[in-house]
Amino acid sequence: MIKNLIILKIGGSVVTDKKNDNEKINRKNLKRISQEIARARNEKNFALVIVHGVGPFGHKLAKKFNLHKGYSNNSQIAALSEIYSSLRKLNTEVESCLKEQKINTVSFKQSSAWLLENKRLVHADLSIIKRYLDFDIVPILHGDVLMDTKLGFSVLSGDQIVTYLAKKLNAQKVIIGTDVDGVFSNDPKLEKDVRLIKTFSVKNKKDLNLTGSTATDVTGGMKGKIGELIELSKLGIESEIINIVKPNILKRSLCGHRGLGTIIKSN
Ligand code: ADP
Whose CA is nearest to atom 18 of ligand 1? Predict the structure, then answer.
Protein backbone atom coordinates (compact mmCIF):
# COMPACT_ATOMS: atom_id res chain seq x y z
CA MET A 1 0.00 0.00 0.00
CA ILE A 2 1.32 3.42 -0.98
CA LYS A 3 0.99 6.03 1.72
CA ASN A 4 -0.58 9.44 1.01
CA LEU A 5 -1.12 8.79 -2.66
CA ILE A 6 -2.69 11.55 -4.75
CA ILE A 7 -3.90 10.89 -8.28
CA LEU A 8 -3.90 14.15 -10.24
CA LYS A 9 -5.63 14.57 -13.58
CA ILE A 10 -4.48 17.53 -15.64
CA GLY A 11 -7.24 18.12 -18.17
CA GLY A 12 -6.70 18.38 -21.91
CA SER A 13 -8.41 21.78 -21.66
CA VAL A 14 -5.47 22.93 -19.51
CA VAL A 15 -2.45 21.52 -21.35
CA THR A 16 -3.64 22.13 -24.93
CA ASP A 17 -5.50 24.65 -27.01
CA LYS A 18 -8.59 22.46 -26.79
CA LYS A 19 -11.21 25.07 -27.59
CA ASN A 20 -9.61 26.03 -30.91
CA ASP A 21 -8.96 22.38 -31.79
CA ASN A 22 -5.30 23.16 -32.55
CA GLU A 23 -2.49 20.72 -31.82
CA LYS A 24 -0.90 23.40 -29.68
CA ILE A 25 0.57 22.88 -26.23
CA ASN A 26 -0.26 25.44 -23.54
CA ARG A 27 3.28 25.81 -22.16
CA LYS A 28 2.34 28.72 -19.94
CA ASN A 29 -0.21 26.62 -18.03
CA LEU A 30 2.13 23.63 -17.97
CA LYS A 31 5.01 25.62 -16.51
CA ARG A 32 2.92 27.19 -13.76
CA ILE A 33 1.26 23.88 -12.90
CA SER A 34 4.66 22.16 -12.71
CA GLN A 35 5.89 24.91 -10.39
CA GLU A 36 2.84 24.49 -8.15
CA ILE A 37 3.38 20.72 -7.99
CA ALA A 38 7.05 21.23 -7.08
CA ARG A 39 6.16 23.77 -4.36
CA ALA A 40 3.50 21.48 -2.91
CA ARG A 41 5.93 18.54 -2.83
CA ASN A 42 8.48 20.68 -0.99
CA GLU A 43 5.86 21.57 1.61
CA LYS A 44 4.11 18.23 2.02
CA ASN A 45 5.02 14.60 1.80
CA PHE A 46 2.83 12.73 -0.69
CA ALA A 47 3.18 10.20 -3.46
CA LEU A 48 1.87 11.38 -6.81
CA VAL A 49 0.61 9.92 -10.09
CA ILE A 50 -0.19 12.33 -12.91
CA VAL A 51 -2.67 11.54 -15.68
CA HIS A 52 -2.97 14.14 -18.41
CA GLY A 53 -5.69 14.68 -20.96
CA VAL A 54 -4.72 15.01 -24.61
CA GLY A 55 -7.14 17.52 -26.16
CA PRO A 56 -6.76 17.84 -29.96
CA PHE A 57 -3.60 15.66 -29.89
CA GLY A 58 -5.94 12.70 -29.53
CA HIS A 59 -9.56 13.72 -29.94
CA LYS A 60 -9.24 15.30 -33.39
CA LEU A 61 -8.04 12.19 -35.24
CA ALA A 62 -10.07 9.87 -33.00
CA LYS A 63 -13.25 11.73 -33.94
CA LYS A 64 -12.43 12.05 -37.65
CA PHE A 65 -11.79 8.32 -37.99
CA ASN A 66 -14.22 7.13 -35.29
CA LEU A 67 -11.42 5.40 -33.43
CA HIS A 68 -13.44 5.56 -30.20
CA LYS A 69 -16.14 3.38 -31.79
CA GLY A 70 -13.75 0.57 -32.64
CA TYR A 71 -12.58 -0.97 -35.88
CA SER A 72 -14.88 -0.45 -38.87
CA ASN A 73 -12.61 -0.09 -41.91
CA ASN A 74 -8.99 -0.11 -43.01
CA SER A 75 -8.77 3.68 -43.45
CA GLN A 76 -8.61 3.87 -39.64
CA ILE A 77 -5.30 2.03 -39.39
CA ALA A 78 -3.00 4.82 -40.60
CA ALA A 79 -4.83 7.25 -38.29
CA LEU A 80 -4.32 4.86 -35.40
CA SER A 81 -0.59 4.77 -36.02
CA GLU A 82 -0.42 8.55 -36.48
CA ILE A 83 -2.28 9.26 -33.25
CA TYR A 84 0.48 7.53 -31.25
CA SER A 85 3.11 9.92 -32.64
CA SER A 86 0.91 12.87 -31.83
CA LEU A 87 0.28 11.68 -28.26
CA ARG A 88 3.99 11.07 -27.75
CA LYS A 89 4.77 14.67 -28.74
CA LEU A 90 2.40 16.06 -26.12
CA ASN A 91 3.48 13.59 -23.45
CA THR A 92 7.17 14.44 -23.96
CA GLU A 93 6.40 18.14 -23.45
CA VAL A 94 4.40 17.50 -20.29
CA GLU A 95 7.22 15.40 -18.91
CA SER A 96 9.95 17.91 -19.74
CA CYS A 97 8.01 20.79 -18.09
CA LEU A 98 7.80 18.73 -14.89
CA LYS A 99 11.47 17.80 -15.06
CA GLU A 100 12.43 21.47 -15.46
CA GLN A 101 10.98 21.95 -11.98
CA LYS A 102 13.14 19.06 -10.70
CA ILE A 103 10.24 16.62 -10.38
CA ASN A 104 11.44 13.06 -11.06
CA THR A 105 9.04 11.43 -13.49
CA VAL A 106 8.59 8.37 -15.70
CA SER A 107 6.16 8.17 -18.63
CA PHE A 108 3.99 5.11 -19.20
CA LYS A 109 2.50 4.01 -22.52
CA GLN A 110 -0.81 2.29 -21.89
CA SER A 111 -1.22 1.35 -25.57
CA SER A 112 1.71 -1.05 -25.41
CA ALA A 113 0.81 -2.72 -22.12
CA TRP A 114 -2.90 -2.48 -21.26
CA LEU A 115 -6.03 -3.96 -22.83
CA LEU A 116 -9.69 -2.91 -23.08
CA GLU A 117 -12.85 -4.96 -23.37
CA ASN A 118 -15.76 -2.98 -24.77
CA LYS A 119 -14.05 0.30 -23.77
CA ARG A 120 -13.32 -0.76 -20.17
CA LEU A 121 -9.90 -1.71 -18.81
CA VAL A 122 -9.56 -5.46 -18.30
CA HIS A 123 -5.83 -5.93 -18.25
CA ALA A 124 -3.59 -3.35 -16.61
CA ASP A 125 -0.62 -4.44 -14.57
CA LEU A 126 0.23 -1.80 -11.97
CA SER A 127 3.12 -3.60 -10.30
CA ILE A 128 5.76 -1.52 -12.09
CA ILE A 129 3.99 1.76 -11.34
CA LYS A 130 4.01 0.76 -7.66
CA ARG A 131 7.76 0.15 -7.77
CA TYR A 132 8.40 3.61 -9.21
CA LEU A 133 6.23 5.11 -6.48
CA ASP A 134 8.40 3.34 -3.90
CA PHE A 135 11.30 5.43 -5.21
CA ASP A 136 9.15 8.58 -5.09
CA ILE A 137 9.22 8.90 -8.87
CA VAL A 138 6.05 10.39 -10.38
CA PRO A 139 4.47 8.13 -13.05
CA ILE A 140 2.83 10.03 -15.91
CA LEU A 141 0.00 8.45 -17.92
CA HIS A 142 -2.41 9.88 -20.47
CA GLY A 143 -5.57 9.20 -22.45
CA ASP A 144 -4.75 6.76 -25.25
CA VAL A 145 -6.07 4.39 -27.92
CA LEU A 146 -5.81 0.75 -26.85
CA MET A 147 -6.40 -2.66 -28.33
CA ASP A 148 -9.89 -3.83 -27.37
CA THR A 149 -10.88 -7.52 -27.25
CA LYS A 150 -14.42 -6.80 -28.48
CA LEU A 151 -14.03 -3.70 -30.67
CA GLY A 152 -10.56 -4.20 -32.14
CA PHE A 153 -9.40 -0.95 -30.57
CA SER A 154 -11.00 1.93 -28.68
CA VAL A 155 -10.21 4.97 -26.61
CA LEU A 156 -9.19 4.91 -22.96
CA SER A 157 -10.00 8.26 -21.36
CA GLY A 158 -7.70 9.88 -18.84
CA ASP A 159 -10.72 9.95 -16.53
CA GLN A 160 -11.10 6.16 -16.67
CA ILE A 161 -7.37 5.78 -15.93
CA VAL A 162 -7.79 8.00 -12.86
CA THR A 163 -10.62 5.92 -11.39
CA TYR A 164 -8.84 2.65 -12.17
CA LEU A 165 -5.61 3.75 -10.49
CA ALA A 166 -7.41 5.30 -7.53
CA LYS A 167 -9.28 2.05 -6.90
CA LYS A 168 -6.38 -0.34 -7.39
CA LEU A 169 -3.78 1.76 -5.59
CA ASN A 170 -6.16 2.87 -2.86
CA ALA A 171 -5.51 6.57 -3.38
CA GLN A 172 -5.98 8.95 -0.52
CA LYS A 173 -7.17 11.75 -2.77
CA VAL A 174 -8.19 12.31 -6.39
CA ILE A 175 -7.86 15.76 -7.93
CA ILE A 176 -9.40 16.50 -11.31
CA GLY A 177 -7.90 19.69 -12.71
CA THR A 178 -9.83 21.36 -15.50
CA ASP A 179 -10.63 24.83 -16.91
CA VAL A 180 -13.87 25.53 -15.02
CA ASP A 181 -14.39 26.06 -11.27
CA GLY A 182 -16.16 22.73 -10.80
CA VAL A 183 -19.53 21.28 -11.69
CA PHE A 184 -22.26 23.82 -12.36
CA SER A 185 -26.03 23.58 -12.74
CA ASN A 186 -25.35 24.04 -16.46
CA ASP A 187 -22.30 24.35 -18.73
CA PRO A 188 -20.75 27.70 -17.62
CA LYS A 189 -19.32 28.20 -21.10
CA LEU A 190 -22.75 28.11 -22.69
CA GLU A 191 -25.04 29.58 -20.03
CA LYS A 192 -24.76 32.74 -17.93
CA ASP A 193 -27.12 31.95 -15.11
CA VAL A 194 -25.31 29.02 -13.51
CA ARG A 195 -24.70 27.91 -9.96
CA LEU A 196 -21.58 26.09 -8.70
CA ILE A 197 -22.33 22.78 -6.98
CA LYS A 198 -19.97 22.57 -4.00
CA THR A 199 -20.78 18.95 -3.15
CA PHE A 200 -22.02 16.49 -5.65
CA SER A 201 -23.47 13.02 -5.12
CA VAL A 202 -25.58 10.53 -7.06
CA LYS A 203 -28.63 12.18 -5.46
CA ASN A 204 -28.25 15.54 -7.21
CA LYS A 205 -27.16 14.19 -10.58
CA LYS A 206 -30.66 14.58 -11.95
CA ASP A 207 -30.78 18.32 -11.02
CA LEU A 208 -27.93 19.14 -13.35
CA ASN A 209 -27.61 19.63 -17.03
CA LEU A 210 -24.41 17.76 -17.64
CA THR A 211 -23.18 17.87 -21.17
CA GLY A 212 -19.90 16.93 -22.77
CA SER A 213 -17.27 19.42 -23.72
CA THR A 214 -17.67 22.52 -25.86
CA ALA A 215 -14.47 21.33 -27.59
CA THR A 216 -13.95 18.20 -29.69
CA ASP A 217 -13.98 15.37 -27.16
CA VAL A 218 -14.71 11.70 -27.72
CA THR A 219 -14.71 10.72 -24.05
CA GLY A 220 -17.76 12.58 -22.80
CA GLY A 221 -16.40 15.84 -21.30
CA MET A 222 -17.86 16.74 -17.91
CA LYS A 223 -20.58 14.10 -18.22
CA GLY A 224 -17.99 11.36 -18.77
CA LYS A 225 -15.95 12.62 -15.83
CA ILE A 226 -18.86 12.58 -13.41
CA GLY A 227 -19.83 9.05 -14.47
CA GLU A 228 -16.34 7.81 -13.59
CA LEU A 229 -16.08 9.77 -10.34
CA ILE A 230 -19.45 8.58 -9.05
CA GLU A 231 -18.28 4.99 -9.45
CA LEU A 232 -15.22 5.91 -7.41
CA SER A 233 -17.27 7.61 -4.70
CA LYS A 234 -19.26 4.38 -4.23
CA LEU A 235 -16.00 2.76 -3.10
CA GLY A 236 -15.51 5.52 -0.54
CA ILE A 237 -12.90 7.45 -2.53
CA GLU A 238 -13.72 11.12 -2.67
CA SER A 239 -12.59 13.32 -5.54
CA GLU A 240 -12.60 17.04 -6.23
CA ILE A 241 -12.92 18.86 -9.54
CA ILE A 242 -11.00 22.13 -9.44
CA ASN A 243 -9.97 24.91 -11.81
CA ILE A 244 -6.21 24.60 -12.29
CA VAL A 245 -6.06 27.35 -14.89
CA LYS A 246 -6.40 29.74 -11.94
CA PRO A 247 -3.09 30.17 -10.08
CA ASN A 248 -2.51 28.51 -6.72
CA ILE A 249 -5.68 26.38 -6.63
CA LEU A 250 -3.76 23.21 -7.53
CA LYS A 251 -1.02 23.85 -5.01
CA ARG A 252 -3.56 24.40 -2.23
CA SER A 253 -5.44 21.26 -3.20
CA LEU A 254 -2.25 19.16 -3.23
CA CYS A 255 -1.40 20.54 0.20
CA GLY A 256 -4.67 19.25 1.61
CA HIS A 257 -7.24 22.05 1.18
CA ARG A 258 -10.77 20.89 0.43
CA GLY A 259 -13.71 22.81 -0.95
CA LEU A 260 -11.86 24.59 -3.74
CA GLY A 261 -14.21 23.30 -6.43
CA THR A 262 -16.77 20.50 -6.49
CA ILE A 263 -16.37 17.52 -4.18
CA ILE A 264 -17.80 14.26 -5.51
CA LYS A 265 -18.88 11.92 -2.74
CA SER A 266 -21.20 8.99 -2.31
CA ASN A 267 -24.05 10.68 -0.38
P1 ADP B 1 -10.77 18.44 -19.61
O2 ADP B 1 -10.26 18.53 -21.03
O3 ADP B 1 -10.15 19.46 -18.71
O4 ADP B 1 -10.75 17.06 -19.06
P5 ADP B 1 -13.52 18.51 -20.54
O6 ADP B 1 -13.53 19.41 -21.75
O7 ADP B 1 -13.57 17.05 -20.76
O8 ADP B 1 -12.29 18.91 -19.61
O9 ADP B 1 -14.72 18.88 -19.55
C10 ADP B 1 -14.76 20.17 -19.00
C11 ADP B 1 -15.80 20.97 -19.76
O12 ADP B 1 -17.10 20.45 -19.48
C13 ADP B 1 -15.87 22.42 -19.32
O14 ADP B 1 -14.93 23.20 -20.02
C15 ADP B 1 -17.33 22.79 -19.63
O16 ADP B 1 -17.44 23.54 -20.82
C17 ADP B 1 -18.04 21.44 -19.85
N18 ADP B 1 -19.27 21.25 -19.06
C19 ADP B 1 -20.45 20.72 -19.54
N20 ADP B 1 -21.39 20.69 -18.61
C21 ADP B 1 -20.85 21.23 -17.48
C22 ADP B 1 -21.35 21.50 -16.16
N23 ADP B 1 -22.61 21.21 -15.80
N24 ADP B 1 -20.49 22.06 -15.24
C25 ADP B 1 -19.20 22.35 -15.58
N26 ADP B 1 -18.68 22.14 -16.83
C27 ADP B 1 -19.48 21.59 -17.77
Answer: 187
Q: How far apart are CA 250 and CA 176, in angstroms?
A: 10
Q: pLDDT value at position 95?
A: 98
Residue with CA at minimum distance from ligand 1 atom 22: 187
Residues spanned by the domain of 116? 5-264
CA 212 / ligand 1 centre spacing (Å): 6
CB contact at 8 A, 250 and 33? yes
Ligand 1 centroid–CA 222 distance in Å is: 4
Q: How far is CA 18 from the centre of its chain?
A: 14
The domain that holds 60 is classified in CATH as 3.40.1160.10
Tens of pLDDT, residues 148-169: 999 999 999 999 999 999 999 9
The total domain count for the chain is: 1
For residue 10, give the ligand 1 atom closest to its CA.
3
What is the pTM for the complete model shown?
0.96
